[in-house]
Amino acid sequence: MTVRVQAEDFDVGAEIDALTRDRHTIGGVTAFVGLVREIAGGDAVSAMTLEHYPGMTERQLEAIEAEARRRWPLDDVLLVHRYGRLEPGDRIVLVLTASAHRQAAFESCHFLIDWLKTKAPFWKREETPQGDRWVEAKDSDDTAAARWAENPVWPGG
Amino acid sequence: MKVLYFAWLRTRIGVAQEVVEPPAEVTTVGGLVEWLKTRGPTYASALANTKVVKVAVNQEYVPYDHPVGPGDEVALFPPVTGG
Question: Residue ranges under compositional bias (Basic and acidic residues) (chain A) (predicted)?
Answer without folding.
Answer: 127-141
